[in-house]
Amino acid sequence: MPVKKIVKAVTDNGSNFVKAFKEYGSEYFNVEADDNEEECEEADFVNIQNLLEEEDSVGSLYKLPPHQRCASHTLSLICTIDANQKSSKIMKSAFGKCQGLWNKCSRSTKCAETAKEVCGTTLKKPCVTRWNSMYDCLRDILKNKENLPKVCIALGIPILTEVDLEFITNYCFVVQPIAEALDRLQGENATFYGELLPTLLTVQKKLVNLQDMKPRHCEWLPEILLHGLKRRFANELEISTLVQDAVIASVSHPKMKLRWVPAFKIEEVRKSFINTVILEAQANRTGTFDASLKPAELKRDAIKDDFLIFEDAQVEVSAESDDSEIINIKQECINYLSDASIEIGILDKYKNVKHVFIKYNTPLPSSGPVERLFSYSNMILTPKRMSLSDGNFETLLLLKTNGY
Q1: Could you tell me the CA-to-CA distances from 148 to 25, 99, 110, 159 in Å, in that order?
Q2: What 3-state class would DSSP assign to 10?
Q3: Are 369 and 281 a contacting pair, CB within 8 Å?
Q4: d(Cα 232, Cα 227) in Å, to the nearest integer?
């Protein structure tokens, strides 16, 4: 597939991926700190430089498509690497005691059963590769805080004090916007690339509000998280031209449109969106785009979604004089932006906008769904099933992933 047809290739933040796309990518603009890259184990490499430098039949060099780092992993780094740069004694004490509790329950079946008898439920243990699992486990501890003294005494570990529990409560309160953003961006059935920018801007606004609240024992945390967010997502938060594809993906999303754009950027984003729809319509005039394609149902539209914070800016749209085809496309964009509905189904009324939506919302903001696919592979390719053929393995993996 030609590189120009691929909007983004989303990978995790492994240094091997970052280097490959930096050297052989068609573009590279995510300039971030070195600690945003995940170190990978040494591996044996085959020299394919000669292949990459060979010219194809039309005389152009082979290139990798534009690269997008996993937004979920980058958000996790804000709550791990960035937040740990200024940890307090209370934080070390509380997290140390929690880790001791998790270690006891995970390493001993007897201890796990004891905790279950006292609390009435099994205590969750965080996954080392997923920060938001730690957030969920801390929330789980808070739900069982009345029974924690009994559990700690029974297991012979230090008891979580009132100060420790107060810190954990306020910590969860501060990091909640990032945890919710992670859950949103790691989905696959109802998650689109167009959610990335509105979600990041919402997290920024909520962290700014938390700065003014100064939660006890965590006064320093909102500022650290906000600084990390601005450093790692500078282009996205500034709505830079370097993330133009993410901007178009958001505006072509019926739920977002221009509602998330700051007032001073609305006119610029509106013109850019209309120009993109015109260019895509002209480019696909003789193409093979199937207007009957239906994007996946946006299940979140059916329920109340109070996470995103939208702007109150008024959008004024008008059509300029031009040739008839461009006028029609512009009018279609204006009608779409003025449509009050946020349902995905309204795209059937705007075929050119629908084409842009499908193209620019094909990428996912996170590599989480792919990593889940790899996790399923370990369940299928067990020692007793090592003789599976490639075809059968792929079929079983897809059946498992799709829920059959």
Answers
A1: 52, 13, 17, 7
A2: strand
A3: no
A4: 9
pLDDT tens column, 75-128: 999 988 888 887 788 899 999 999 999 998 888 889 889 888 888 888 888 887
38: β partners:
14
Q: What is the DSSP string of 191-229?
A: --GGGHHHHHHHHHHHHHHHHHH--TT-TTHHHHHHHHH
> What is the 3-state secondary structure of 331-388?
HHHHHHHHCCCCCHHHHHHCHHHHHHHHHHCCCCCCCHHHHHHHHHHHHHCCHHHCCC
- List, as one string, the DSSP characters of 27-69: -------GGGSB----------HHHHHSB-TTSPBP-BPPEEE
User: pTM of the prediction?
Assistant: 0.80
Cα radius of gyration rounded to whole Å, the chain: 24
Query: Rounded to an integer, what distance in angstroms lies between the CA atom of residue 112 and that of residue 114?
Result: 5
Contact 144, 67 (CB under 8 A): no
Dist CA 57 CA 201 (whole Å): 44
The continuous run of DSSP H or E covering 9 comes out as strand 9-11
**Segment 307-344, tens digit of pLDDT:** 888 876 655 555 454 578 889 999 999 999 999 999 99
Q: Exposed (0-12), middle (13-18) or buried (19+): which is 167, by Cβ within 10 Å? A: buried
Nearest to residue 82, comparing CAs of 201, 174, 193?
A: 174
Of how many residues is the chain composed? 404
Assigned token pair, 58: 């039309």
Q: Where are the beta strands (DSSP E) in 107-196?
A: none
